[in-house]
Every structure is written in structure tokens, then in C-alpha cells.
Amino acid sequence: MDERRTVKVSKYLSKHLRHQPERIGLTLDEGGWVEIDTLVAAAAAHGFHFTREELDHVVATNDKRRFAIEGTRIRASQGHSITVDLGLPPATPPPYLYHGTVAGALDAIRAEGLRPMNRHDVHLSADLETATRVGARRGRPVVLTIDAGAMHRDGHVFQVSANGVWLTRAVPPQYVRFAERH
């Protein structure tokens, strides 16, 4: 499977497993899962054909591990704009986490902190490199350091998805600062 096809299938899966399952007639269960055969058939019925082998390739090779397969079911690991319960237990974060963004967002972040925007949670990275890649998707990246240890001590709840993305409802501005190595 060539890289362009891999990206195309991955984007299609993200759109329909994270944001618009109803667009192709899918109904995800409360945890965001759908039967793989149902997904493949729904996509084909709406003009986008892919094989189970292509699906397995996308899941196995995605560097961000965006999707999880459990038995005969698949779901997006996080990043939903639709209501799902990923069933993730609370987790104790490392002392610092990181968030990649762009300079144009800094004034709002200074005033309001990090908000989930159209998602359920704010996404944080455990390392600077990942946060830099995330920020670079929208331009020149700016990486912020999040004092996750202090947030956790102050009662903020964290979860970590199967692919290592740290999730929290919001990050108030007092816990945000420009990245520096710790």
C-alpha cells in the first residue's frame, strides 16, 4: 500500500470514527466502537472502498496509533468531537506535559488557558518532539509546557489514551508556560 493511499484511508477513518459516523450510516457504541465489517460495508456503500488488509495496514503503521482494533471492532483512540466514553481510568501524569500550538493562539491561551475546542478534551504530549510535530500541523510550532503535576495535585483529572496521548478537560492559564527542558 503506497503512502498516499495509507493517508487517504487514515483520514477517511478519522473523519468517520471521530466526527461524522452518521454521514455513512454508522452508529458507534457508547465506547466509540463499530464492527469492522460494518465499517467496510458502509464505506463501500458510500463510494469509498478499502479492504480489511488496507485497514489493518493503516492501523498498524499509523505513527500516532490513532485507531485501536479489539477483536472484530475498531475505534479511534481519542480526538472525538462526538460523544463517546473511551472508558479510560484516571491516571497520574508525569510532572510536565507539552502542548504544540502556533503563535496566533498564544493570546487566547494566556487569557483562557487550553480549551478542548471542538473535542472532548485537551490533548497533551509526554515529550517535546511529539508536541512539536502536533504544533507544526498548523504552521511554525510553539511548544508550551504544562505543569501537569501541579494540576493533578490541585484536583484536575488526567487520562491517557491507548496511543499515549494525555487528556484533560481544560488547562487553566496558571499551569501553562513556554517549554523548557526539565
UniProtKB/TrEMBL annotation:
Q: What class of enzyme is it?
A: transferase
Return the Pfam families for the record. PTS_2-RNA (PF01885)
Q: Which SUPFAM superfamilies match?
A: ADP-ribosylation
| Keywords annotated in UniProt | NAD, Transferase
EC no. given is: 2.7.1.-
Q: Name one GO molecular function term.
A: NAD+ poly-ADP-ribosyltransferase activity
One BP term from GO: tRNA splicing, via endonucleolytic cleavage and ligation
UniProt superkingdom = Bacteria
Identify its protein family: Belongs to the KptA/TPT1 family.
Function summary:
Removes the 2'-phosphate from RNA via an intermediate in which the phosphate is ADP-ribosylated by NAD followed by a presumed transesterification to release the RNA and generate ADP-ribose 1''-2''-cyclic phosphate (APPR>P). May function as an ADP-ribosylase.
User: Known NCBIfam families for this protein?
Assistant: PRK00819.1-4
Could you tell me what this protein is called? Probable RNA 2'-phosphotransferase
* Organism whose genome encodes this protein: Streptomyces chromofuscus
